[in-house]
């Protein structure tokens, strides 16, 4: 059990070498075989292909068969979840899944074998015959299922293996998408995977191996998908900021001034509030709640409360990794905001 004591900064706890190697290999090999690469030097996959996935034009089997679809076989998202007004509220809701997921994962040891290619004997899916890690295998299998039911046609979802997605088995759906076309080429999942395995897990989990590989991998898949969604929401946040100050942003975009964009989109006081809220949520979700009403328990001394994960540590992970990567997505999106228009 973690205490409420001040957490050691994640950056000062280097990951075991084996984990660093495993994730690096998975990222570099993944770029060649389907895993998303960092988009710093260009789109991770081709623009027309990604559009096909989003629009469902690669999904003829499904579009041809639905009676509930529109005249072109495409359904429309009737929810308002991608309207710009709902973006900040969604970020706050997503915190709950992320915090619960991190606490869930922290009950298991690091279990390094899950991240090492061949560490656990799983079927290989890399075309070049190199072995996959158990996490890569589970993530890709999960995307095969989600991909069939249009998860990755939604503009707020990003696959870790976008080049390996299957055809849809249900009709395509058209989503309201307030983003500029350049958004389609931005996918930083390879960086997110690297950060999760090498920085976040070592800050969260006990060293060692408890052999709960299946539970570990399931928690990891869910956490990676939640983190990916949260971080790529930066595209929507950036779009709302652009629309609020179009002249200022346009000037910086035309100058390709990444540092200026970062300054303009950063709200230090909002970040402080996020860290405080996340820390409070981690304190609430991470304590053992008994069947007694709080009033029957009397006043509990804060120092007596045992937490599953030190709440400050979760706040730090937000400050050090999750918010900076969300801002990186915002800058990447804004730098290309005027492309293809
Ligand atoms: O809420 C915003 O304005 C955001 O851009 C999101 C976010 C975050 O990741 O939580 C990122 C940058 C800001 O400095 C504050 C918060």
UniProtKB/TrEMBL annotation:
Instruction: Give the GO terms filed under biological process for this record.
Output: amino acid biosynthetic process; aromatic amino acid family biosynthetic process; chorismate metabolic process
Pathway named in the protein's UniProt entry: Metabolic intermediate biosynthesis; prephenate biosynthesis; prephenate from chorismate: step 1/1
Q: What class of enzyme is it?
A: isomerase
The Chorismate mutase domain covers 224-330
Nucleotidyltransferase is among the record's keywords = no
This enzyme catalyses:
chorismate = prephenate
Sample GO molecular function, one term? chorismate mutase activity
For region Disordered, the annotated ranges are: 30-79
Q: Which GO terms describe its cellular component?
A: cytoplasm
Amino-acid biosynthesis as a keyword of this entry, yes or no, is yes
Composition bias, Low complexity = 30-48, 55-74
What InterPro entries does UniProt report for this protein, alphabetically? Chorismate_II_sf, Chorismate_mutase_AroQ_euk, CM_AroQ_sf_eucaryotic, CM_II_prokaryot
**Where in the cell does this protein reside?**
Cytoplasm
Name the Enzyme Commission number(s) assigned to this protein: 5.4.99.5
What highest taxon heads this organism's lineage? Eukaryota
**Alphabetically ordered keywords of this record:** Amino-acid biosynthesis, Aromatic amino acid biosynthesis, Cytoplasm, Isomerase
Q: Which NCBIfam families does the record associate with it?
A: CM_pl-yst
**What is the protein's given name?**
chorismate mutase
Q: Which organism is it from?
A: Micromonas commoda (strain RCC299 / NOUM17 / CCMP2709)
Ranked from the top, the taxonomy reads: Eukaryota, Viridiplantae, Chlorophyta, Mamiellophyceae, Mamiellales
